[in-house]
């Protein structure tokens, strides 16, 4: 949205260009601009978040479960485009929107593969799923998104849970990072830290134990 002048009444007031009134008006405008102007502007932009500040678009992206990017130069623009398309598609969101988001984030460094399962072993589903389409296999509701090793792995780890939520509820998505050769499913990647305590004795001070 266009910026709104919240001090227009002061600016347009008659005979406000001289004396103490001018000084007070300038002081008020400066304080208002420093403290409240951006906050009020953000509230006005709630009606069309994709045109608002980074704070607004990030807040609404989180609220709707969309990707929140941390790239220095392009994240704001990408999030605006993604949110605008998300809002306009409404009930027509599906695999097409998933492909759109992946293309916006990682250009052509990804591939979506539909997964199949042998008919004869359907009782063991999904133990034998495969990316190969064969006559004796049935198409499952599962997808595998393979992401090239040229993509920042930390970004994949951060965005994988969100990407899995961009599809209809009946679709199960696995995100595969080639750089790590790991699939990100419902389980999160964690790290364990091990520490060992050492006792240090300072013999220069009568054997005091630290």
UniProtKB/TrEMBL annotation:
Domain of life, source organism: Bacteria
UniProt protein name: Uncharacterized protein
Native source species: Acinetobacter kyonggiensis
